[in-house]
Amino acid sequence: MSVAEERIDRLTELAREASRSGDSDLAKRYVRRARRIAERNRIPLPRRFKRFTCARCDAYLIPGRNARVRTKDGHVVVTCDCGEHARYPY
After folding, report:
1. Which domain covers residue 22, as residue numbers?
2. Which residue from 13, 17, 32, 61 has the least number of CB within 10 angstroms?
3. d(CA 72, CA 82)
4. Cα–Cα distance for residue pair 87/9, rounded to 1 Å
5. How confident is the model at residue 1 (pLDDT cuts 50, 70, 90)?
């Protein structure tokens, strides 16, 4: 595992902790930094990271708190408070 991948994993953990404690601005900073590291090093973001972050506002999503999760006809729809939808097959 490269240094960039380790840092992205650590920033993901920090964003999760910050979001759960109620500090959403700090969580957004961690998410933005992780995305930037992935872009610079040309590595894909982990699936868990992509599924729990909003592509529009960079919020770390916690179902029931700042995200709504619904299942429809073979896919999961995650809706952020900003209105962004993400769909994943299951």
Report:
1. 3-89
2. 13
3. 21
4. 23
5. confident
Tell me the pLDDT tens digit for each residue of 32-89.
999 999 999 999 999 999 999 999 999 999 999 999 999 999 999 999 999 999 999 9
Which among 64, 78, 66 has a CA at the least distance from the CA of 24? 66
- On the 0-12 / 13-18 / 19+ scale of CB atoms within 10 A, 30 is buried
How many CB atoms lie under 10 A from the CB of residue 37? 17
DSSP of the chain, one letter per residue? --HHHHHHHHHHHHHHHHHHTT-HHHHHHHHHHHHHHHHHHT-PPPHHHHHTB-TTT-PBP-BTTTEEEEEETTEEEEEETTS-EEEEE-
Q: Which amino acid makes up residue 29?
A: R
Domain count, the chain: 1
